[in-house]
Amino acid sequence: MAKWTAKHEAPAPLEGPVVATVTGGTIIWFAMFVVQLPFYGWFADRDLLWWVWCCAAGGFLGLIGLWYVRGRDAALKRHAAEQAARDARDA
Fold first, then answer.
1. Is the predicted pLDDT of residue 58 greater than 80, yes or no?
2. Which of 9, 30, 57, 61 is most buried per CB count within 10 Å?
3. How far from the centroid of its chain's Cα atoms is residue 30's Cα?
4. pTM (predicted TM-score)
5. How would residue 31 be classed by pLDDT, with cut points 50, 70 and 90?
6. What angle do CA 18, 16, 12 make, to 5 degrees?
7. Within the chain, where are the H helices?
8. How many other CB atoms are found less than 10 A from the CB of residue 62?
9. In terms of Cα–Cα distance, which of 67, 64, 58, 69 is closest to 25?
10. With contact defined as beta carbons under 8 Å apart, do 52 and 43 qualify?
11. CA angle 90, 13, 78 (to 5 degrees)
12. 59, 55, 23: which is closest to 39 by C-alpha?
């Protein structure tokens, strides 16, 4: 079997408001958790408690993701500033 090779170049990755996107997703997960809490008994009676805890896990994983993307964003800005200083020095 031959090894697969790409026939065209991969597109550049999309950059956007990553911190805002992760923050919004985290808020939505926590909001869904809070909305489901009054119905905890209903979910328990039908063995669907994983729905409630899935939303809680999504919210907490979103907090980890928020910590990660904020650090990544800071590192990208720091790198861009260093590159600009290097370019200014070389010019």
1. yes
2. 30
3. 14
4. 0.77
5. very high
6. 115
7. 18-36, 40-45, 49-90
8. 19
9. 58
10. yes
11. 40
12. 55
